[in-house]
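Sample pair:
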Amino acid sequence: MRVTSATGARPSSSATATRVSTATASATKRRDSKLWSETFDVGATQPLTSKEIKRQEAIFELAQGEQDLVEDLKLAKKAYHDPMLKLSIMTEQELNQIFGTLDSLIPLHEDLLSRLRDARKPDGSTEHVGHILTDWLPCLYSYTPYCSNQVKAKALLDQRKQDRRVQDFLQRCLQSPFSRKLDLWNFLDIPRSRLVKYPLLLREILKHTPNDHPDRQHLDEAMVMVQSVVADINRRTGESECQYYKDRLLYTEDGRRDGLIDRSKTLSCHGELKNNRGAKLHVFLFQDVLVITRSISLNDQPVSYQLCRQPIPIRQLDLEDLSDGEMRVGGSIRGAFSNNERTKNFFRVSYRSGGQLQSHCFQASDAFNKQQWINCIRQAKEAAALSGEQPPQAEPGIDTGLEICGETGLGGEMEAGQGHCVLGCLLLVTMVTTVFSSTGAT
């Protein structure tokens, strides 16, 4: 599951709590950190209070992080981009898509690093950084195209990894000391991780800056600026990601689209779930609609998603948390009646339209992932309830050309008014009657 809104916590597989969230997996593999007090002769000229030492440590961490970032961005270009281009492992167009505007970020961070170093006194201490940050922070808007491109970049990189030459090159890089056991995507994701860290770094500097300090006002202004910048980039990146997945949806009939999907500008979360028969589904929770699909790989194209049920409007969606052992799975008569088939981490969503019930039971990979889905759906329902505008509703079975029936296999939900579901039920009754009659049961 991938949570893409800023309201969710970080889920399990390929997830981000916010679109510009910190890559915690990468952080543990970064180079060892250096402390200001270990780099400079603390108190050589004048004694410093514990609070001032902590302030200097926070400022030094900001500068050291800029240096590490510049080195990593240059490494990504020198060790990955340039060799793959020279050896024709990927085309220039593919590399431009994967690396995006990474080149433009290098001089931006070199500039901040240079300013922070110039502000440093001979003894290693820094008196003022607030004015530097208020002047530099608007440059972070350069991150908008880079972050907005990442979902396409990741999809293309994953696709190209299927090529043996690409796979072999990346594996050799991963085994080389320079990589620090980070793969290419870790390097490409480092700028995004750095972006969300700026509010944390500024907050730490502010924490140890007295209210009467000359730098306090500028730091307060910088804090407001960086939060605004990150929020704006997060919003734009979310819209880009939402549009990407909308474009990857495949409808059953050409030209038959869904109004709720088309109008959605945000994607709360998405990821793989299983239905009650164990079939893998890819479910998307857009701002106004829940969309159930199956992932499809078409030739050398990025993964597409075939709609397999009518989209469910969030406003009319009912959510039910199923207790462990309450749900059964299986596609056979044995599975339908055996207590051994009870499973965990299920929840149910349902929707009634025109007298017909569409009901789906989903199984998450674990309890944490299940709770993430439940939280996201509840938040989406709350947001929809607070919104006064009523979204357009698609007529069942017309806009998408999809069947309204839910999981009608054994152990699933049965909807009324569905001809093919009724036929399946009659066949089941006939089979069960035959089995019971042969055993002499009544």
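Residues 250-327+344-387 form a domain with the PH-domain like fold (CATH 2.30.29.30).
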